[in-house]
Amino acid sequence: MANHAAFTLYDVARAAGVSTATVSRVVHGNDRVRPATRQRVLEVIDELGYIPDAAAQSMAWHRKEVIGLVTIAPRDPETDIEREGVAFIEEVLRGVQVALGKIGWSVLISVLGGADRSDAYQQLRKISAKVDGLVIVEGIVSSEQLALLAERVPVVLAAGSLDEPNADVVDADNWSGTTALVRHMLVQHGKKRLFYIDGPPDAPDGRARRRAFEETVARHPGAAVTGCFEGRFAAISGQLAVRELLAVPGGELPDAIICGNDQMAIGAMRELQAAGVRVPADVAVTGFDDIRFGALFTPPLTTVRQSLRLLGERACSCLLERIADPALPHRSERLPTELILRESCGCPPAEDPVYWRAAAHEPG
Amino acid sequence: MANHAAFTLYDVARAAGVSTATVSRVVHGNDRVRPATRQRVLEVIDELGYIPDAAAQSMAWHRKEVIGLVTIAPRDPETDIEREGVAFIEEVLRGVQVALGKIGWSVLISVLGGADRSDAYQQLRKISAKVDGLVIVEGIVSSEQLALLAERVPVVLAAGSLDEPNADVVDADNWSGTTALVRHMLVQHGKKRLFYIDGPPDAPDGRARRRAFEETVARHPGAAVTGCFEGRFAAISGQLAVRELLAVPGGELPDAIICGNDQMAIGAMRELQAAGVRVPADVAVTGFDDIRFGALFTPPLTTVRQSLRLLGERACSCLLERIADPALPHRSERLPTELILRESCGCPPAEDPVYWRAAAHEPG
DNA sequence: CTGTTAGCGCCTTCAC
DNA sequence: GTGAAGGCGCTAACAG
What is the structure's pLDDT at A161? Predict the structure, then answer.
C-alpha cells in the first residue's frame, strides 16, 4: 500500500467505458447524464477511490479555491516569546474557516518569522502564487509592497489599522474599547495616576490603543499619565514593566496600570502580587482582548473584548467578495469591542459567580 | 490596479525575446544560461512582477509542495468550548513550519468540526487532493479510513497514540510523564486519595494518561483512586468536576486531583479556591502540557511538559521522509516529556523567582 | 547555450 | 446524452 496510486479521470473513463467528459459531468453532478451511465461511473469512481487532482482543476478553472492566511510572529531573540502568543492565529483561523466552510475552500497558512521585512515580502510573493487571495493579519509589509501584491492577487488586511489605500481592511474598534475602559477607570474608580504598558511600536492595533489611552487621559482634568513601558505583548513584558516601576527608589506607584493586551496585564498583576502589592486595592490593572484565561486569574481581569474569530470571518468574507469582483472599491470595516468589567479594575465581584462562563464564551 | 494581471511564462519569454524554456531555466537558476541572456530575462521578470503559477508547476512536477495539517475541534454544543483550546494547533503549526521552512513548502490547515466522523473522512479526502502529504493531529478517523487515505497520500499521525498499522505516528511519552508525576505525588508528598479529571474518551493521549495514572496508583500500596470525572479538556471541565466533588454531602475531599491537562487543572484550582479550599495545603492539583500560563497562576501549576512544537516538527519531518520514499516501513516515534515541579503539588516555591521564565520558555 | 515539443490532469465548448 | 479536441501554465527531455 505504499504505492500512493493516483487514478486519473482517464482511468475512470476507461474503466467505465465512457469519455472523460462524461466522467467530469458525473463528478460535478450538474449536467444531464443518463441515470444508468451516471450509476456506472459512480461505481467505478467509488471502486477506484478516484479524487480529481486539485492542481489540474486549478489550471482548468483558473481558480485554486485556496486562500492564504499570513501573519508574523516576531520573536525576541533572547526569550523567544511570541507576540499575542495565546491562540491569536488560532481564533482568526476559526473565523476564516467559518467563512470558507460554506464554499469548501481551503486555507494555506503561514506564520512569518518577522525577522526582516524584505524577506516577509518575498514569502508573500511565493504564497500568492498558490492562492486566490490573501488575508494578512497585522500589517507586516510596507504600503508599496502591499500595492505590488495587491496587483497580483486580492488582499485584505486584518487588524492592520493603518489607513491603507491599497487593500481592504478589517479591524477591531480599538479606539472605542480603550476609551470606554479608560473612562471607566477615571470616572467610576477615580483613578488619577495612570501607567501604560504598550505593545511593540510596529503593531498598528497597539498604537491605536495607546493613542486612545493618552487622548482620553489628556482630556480628563486631574488625571495624568505617569509613564509608559514598551513591551512586546507577552506576559514577561508586564512583569518587566512592574519590576522597573518597583525599582524606582522612593517612587510612588500609579493608581492603575492599563495594558495593551491581556497577557501583559496578567504578567503585571502577577509581579505586583509577588511584591506584596494588592490588586486592585493598591494598583488596578486592566488588559485588552479578553483571552480565555483572563477570568480565571485572581483577581479576574477587567478587559476589552474583541472577537478574533469575527475578525477572521469578516476579513475572509471581504476577500471572497473581492475575488468574485476584483473591481470593487476598497472598503474598511470596524468591528465592535466590548468593555468587560471584572475585578482587577476595582469593581466588586459579580454576585453570581459567572466568572467561569468567560472560559466558555464564544467571542463575538 | 484591480486587474490582478497574471503574467505567464510566455509573456516573459516574448518580452525578453527568448523561449519559455530559457525563462524557466533562469527562474530556477540551475541551468547554464549565458549571463547576458539571464540578465535580460531577470529584468523582464522583475519588471512584469512575474511569479510562476503554483498550480501549473504542480502539474508539471507531480508535486504540490504543500502538506496538509488537520485536526479536530469537537465542540460542546452548549458551551462551544474547544478542546485543548489554548494554542494547541498554533504550537504544532510552528513546528511544522520549522520542518517546512527549510525547503519552502507550505501548509494547508484545516480544523475539522469533529461533528460526525464520516464527514471528517470526506473532508480529508478532499484535502488530500490538494497536498503531498497529511499530518493528522489527534486521530479522528477510523483505522480503515486511514488506510484508504494512506493509499492515496502519505499520512502521519501526531498525538494519535493508537497503535496504527496504516501510518507513521509521532506522539509524546504520556505514560512516562504521568507515571513520574503520580509517583511524585505518592512518594514525595505522601498522597493517598487521588481523584482524576479525564479528557474526552475519544482522545488517545488522554486515554494514555489516564491509564498510566491508574496503573501507577494501583501498584502503590496504601494509595487509592477515589474517583474520576470525564471532562473535555477545557477549564470548565475542571470547575464542573470540583463542583461535583464539593456537592457530595459529607464527602471527604481527595488529597490530590490529577488532571488530564493544564486547562482542567486551572479550572479545578480556581473552583477549589472559590470554595475556600486551599491549594495545595488541603488539596493538591496537577496538570499536563505546561501551557504558557501555568506558571502564572497562584499557586504556580505543577505539570508535565510536552513540546507541541517538537511534535509538529517531528511529524512533519517524518512525513517528508515518507514523501521522498513512499516505500519506507511504518515507524513510530515517542517524544520525551518532563516533570515540571512548581507549587500546586505541594512543593515549596523556588527560591529564585524563576516562575516567570516559563512564560518565555521554548517548549522542548 | 537555446529553442521545440510533448505532456501533466482536468474542464469545456462544439459537434454528433 | 455523449464524445472529441483544444487549452490552462509550466517543465523536461530532445534537438540543434
Answer: 64
Which ranges constitute the DSSP H helices of chain A? Answer: 9-16, 20-27, 35-48, 54-61, 88-101, 117-128, 143-152, 174-183, 204-218, 235-247, 262-274, 308-324
The percent of chain A in helix, strand and coil, each rounded to the nearest 5, is: 45, 15, 40
Segment B110-120 shows an average pLDDT of 76
B79 pLDDT more than 70: no
CB B110 within 8 A of CB A105: no
Kindly state the percentage of chain A with pLDDT values over 70: 90
Pick from A53, A88, A328: which is nearest to B129 by CB?
A53
Residue B127: CB partners within 8 Å, gap ≥ 6? A106, B68, B70, B108, B110, B134
Residue B116 has pLDDT above 80, yes or no: no
**What pLDDT was estimated at residue A30?**
76
Instruction: Say yes or no: A53 contacts chain B, CB-CB below 8 A.
Output: yes
Handedness of CA A171, A177, A178, A179 (dihedral sign): positive
Could you tell me the pTM of the whole model?
A: 0.92
Task: Name B residues 56-95 whose Cβ lies under 7 Å from strand D.
Answer: 56-57, 59-61
Place of cell 505543577: B302
Q: Torsion-angle region of residue A132: left (phi > 0), alpha (psi -120 to 50) or beta?
A: alpha
Reply yes or no: is the peptide bond before residue B280 cis, omega within 30 of 0: yes
Q: Which of A86, A97, A166 is opposite residue B111, by nearest beta carbon? A: A97
Q: Is the torsion defined by CA of B308, A140, A136, A315 positive or negative?
A: positive
